[in-house]
Design a protein that fits this description.
Strand content: 25-35%
CATH class of the largest domain: Alpha Beta
Distance between the termini: 68 Å
Shape: globular
Strand order of the largest sheet: 3-7-1-14-11-12-13
Number of helices: 19
């Protein structure tokens, strides 16, 4: 392979790709350490229960069982943790809060012995009434999910409302009172869904001298390091986190879940302890927040949006995790990528006796986008204006402050809309029995960030890149290697990217919000250019030139007199007989902004337009996606094939929550469809007959070479585009996801929902 093969804008073979597709990749569950013990969780078969006593004596009498760890065995009061609020106990204490909330951890010599131990543990509990819906959680006299003592200074401590986020500008009521407006008001629901990463969550911990080592399928190794250090009262330098590349994350592996319990067990036993969840247990560990939304939107006669009035209740689960941030940031751009003069957004995080929700690809935006884009589509139909035209008439243009006090529009978004409409054949007749729909999605990129990188240019011209980012399938290793190749002239297969060990790689805040290319990419770019600056001085000395007459870029040293030399040649001469290396340091920092609702303005926006052509079987309610077009504004595609793959993956994931995915709970709050048999996700049988993914590139992003973060955008607006296509094909509007065959069939039997036709004022 040559250096040219890895240059920016090309699609070289993915770094580590062969191991992934052949099964040679070693995930955490494939790893072990000498003398490791095995752990399993003890739970009770209800959502909420008062736990009177846990008797582990029968389990401890079984062969191989070493420990039954309960809350009583932990420091008192039981330590709590969480990225936003310290509300999650290491093990349930006094009361379970959701179906799957662990009350104990059994540790044994083998997994089978641990499973036998779990079966032998006797838990004396009493089932208690649980609140598992928004209505139940908000009802007068509803049981409180969290103890008031955990929210002592919170004025909402006597309710299940954890927080309320309000974003507003203009005067909504005055706008709504203007004559001649068409006002559309609708309610929508979005279900609980799970991440369903191919690799279930896995954890391991071991005493390490006077500290502890932790292995985890984690997206944020440094954040986990901080969490464990706080719980064990160890300095950060004594907590080492190994984070092998996870087999998918999608936000579900951002923050600590059961690592603390495993750490306490390992320290108590003085031996390594490993816990690998089953797929069913992973369902009980992470999910996306459900949402109920009301949208009231006013339109002028020519299709201008006069106001948006939006209310959204997100059902976040039993513990905060990062969910309140999901609610705040996800609802913040709820008015969409449009210039709307008056907006009011009220979003509430509602606690419930359900699995704690966490980050999920799209970070709260798909839930509210489903409601707002569907309402815009209804407004267009009532007015008799083409849905594409309505969106283009209101769409922000580059530089517009569509959120008046924030980052202006940073792309030529109309180009994505026009391209999607063209590719779906919007202006051509739709085949009989089919319908078309289109929708736009926007998501705020990272609002704060801090990434460090170290790059080493070795004596032979090969390169080692150190980055704290997690490569969970987004292809970060490949893009980082491409940046180093482009800047330092090394062939791609001469570059090693080191990740996943807090004792080796420098600090990275987190792997989320599509930040890796922009934040860590810029840090690596800065480190490479630090090396180039040092090479410039070496070259000037070697070649008898002034520093100002030497430039180093794209793997080449150039002199003002026109001479050019490969970096490798100058490097070898400069390092001399002793050899050595040149080391570069890079940092990308985006500071918090005091007073900003999100703690900082977005570094960029992810923008997407999705267009759908679908047909509906009137006899069964089955929806078939004939054509699926997704177009994203990416700034610059550093690796076009990876961009396409990420968008296509996001698009299919969007079809999951749109057409089939949802938790089914019984009256006691138990999840009835745990695992791959009863919980449907899209398979090859459910893919669109034609899937087209395109990108708009104007090199107008803040990342290396004008790139923006991407990979979430193509998921944001799948649901409203599909629902619009279903309505176009059938005349029936459905406002509750997923659009399962049964739900669609029942809607077809009823016909158009009452109140679909809106009068004008």
């Amino acid at each position: 392979m040559t250096a040219l093969d890895g240059t920016i804008g090309t699609s070289p073979n993915r770094v580590g790709g062969i191991d992934r597709v052949t099964g040679a990749q070693r995930y955490l569950a494939d790893m072990s350490v000498t003398d490791a013990l095995h752990a399993k969780l003890v739970t009770v078969p209800v959502a909420r229960a008062r736990v009177a006593r846990i008797d582990g004596s029968a389990a401890l009498a079984l062969p191989g069982v070493r420990l039954v760890l309960t809350a009583d065995d932990l420091p008192q009061p039981v330590p709590r943790f969480g990225p936003q609020n310290l509300d999650r106990p290491v093990l349930a204490t006094g009361e379970t809060k959701y179906h799957g909330d662990p009350v104990a951890l059994v540790v044994a010599d083998t997994r089978e012995q641990a499973e036998a131990g779990v079966a032998a543990v006797h838990v004396d509990y009493k089932a208690l009434p649980a609140v598992c819906t928004v209505a139940a959680a908000l009802a007068t006299g509803a049981p409180l999910v969290q103890d008031r003592s955990l929210r002592a200074k919170d004025p909402r401590r006597n309710t299940n409302v954890l927080n309320e986020h309000v974003v507003a500008w203009g005067d909504v009521e005055a706008a709504a009172a203007e004559p001649g407006l068409t006002i559309v008001e609708r309610r929508y629901t979005f279900p609980m869904v799970t991440h369903f990463a191919i690799e279930p969550h896995a954890f391991m911990a071991a005493p390490d001298g006077d500290g502890v080592s932790v292995w985890s399928t984690i997206q944020h190794p440094n954040w986990l390091q901080k969490t464990i250090a706080g719980l064990t009262r160890l300095p950060l330098s004594k907590v080492r986190v190994y984070a092998p590349d996870p087999g998918g994350g999608f936000g579900g592996k951002q923050h600590a879940k059961y690592e603390p319990a495993v750490v306490f067990a390992a320290l108590r036993l003085g031996r390594p302890v490993r816990l690998v969840l089953t797929l069913e247990e992973t369902f009980q560990a992470v999910r996306r927040a459900a949402c109920e939304a009301r949208v009231r939107t006013g339109f002028t006669a020519d299709g201008r949006i006069a106001f948006h009035d939006i209310e959204a209740d997100y059902l976040i689960g039993a513990y905060t995790d990062i969910a309140d941030r999901v609610v705040g940031k996800g609802s913040y751009p709820a008015a969409g990528p449009y210039n709307v003069p008056a907006v009011r957004i009220v979003a509430r995080a509602i606690l419930s006796h359900t699995v704690p929700s966490t980050a999920f690809r799209g970070f709260g935006n798909p839930q509210i986008n489903w409601a707002v884009e569907s309402t815009i589509d209804e407004g267009a139909r009532v007015l008799g204006i083409d849905p594409v035209d309505v969106r283009l008439r209101n769409l922000a243009r580059k530089g517009d402050r569509f959120i008046p006090f924030d980052t202006p529009c940073d792309g030529e978004w109309d180009q994505a809309v026009r391209k999607a409409a063209e590719l779906i054949g919007w202006d051509t007749p739709c085949p009989p029995g089919r319908g078309r729909g289109i929708a736009l999605g926007i998501k705020s990129g990272p609002t704060t960030g801090l990434s460090y990188s170290i790059v080493r240019l070795l004596a032979d011209g090969s390169v080692v890149v150190y980055a704290g980012t997690s490569d969970m399938g987004q292809g970060a290793r490949t893009v980082f290697a491409q940046i180093a190749s482009h800047e330092l002239g090394a062939p791609l297969d001469w570059i090693t990217v080191v990740m996943g060990d807090t004792a080796i790689v420098p600090y990275d805040q987190q792997t989320s919000a599509s930040r890796s290319t922009v934040l860590m990419g810029n840090a690596i770019l800065a480190a490479c250019r630090d090396i180039q600056a040092k090479l410039r001085s070496i070259a000037a000395t070697q070649l008898g030139a002034a520093d100002t007459d030497v430039t180093v870029a794209e793997g080449v040293v150039r002199l003002a007199d026109g001479r050019e030399f490969p970096i490798r040649e100058v490097l070898a001469a400069g390092l001399g007989r002793l050899g050595g290396e040149i080391t570069g340091l890079g940092e990308m920092r985006k500071e918090a902004e005091a007073g900003h609702p999100l703690s900082g303005a977005p570094a960029f926006f992810e923008f997407n337009c999705t267009a759908i052509e679908a047909e509906v079987d009137a006899d069964t309610g089955d929806v078939t996606i004939d054509r699926h077009v997704t177009v994203s504004d990416v700034g610059k595609a550093l690796n076009p094939l990876q961009v396409r793959m990420q968008d296509e993956g996001a698009a299919i994931m969007g079809l999951g929550h749109t057409l089939m995915e949802h938790y089914i709970l019984d009256d006691e709050g138990r999840i009835r469809n745990l695992g791959a048999i009863d919980y449907r996700i899209p398979t090859s049988m459910d893919l669109p007959r034609e899937l087209r993914s395109e990108a708009v590139e104007n090199a107008d992003g803040p990342g290396p070479y004008g790139s923006k973060g991407m990979s979430e955008g193509a998921l944001l607006c799948v649901a409203p585009a599909v629902a619009a296509a279903v309505r176009d094909a059938t005349g029936v509007a459905i406002r509750d996801l997923p659009l399962t065959p049964e739900r669609v069939w029942r809607a077809l039997q009823v016909g158009a929902a009452p109140g679909d036709a809106e009068g004008r004022r």
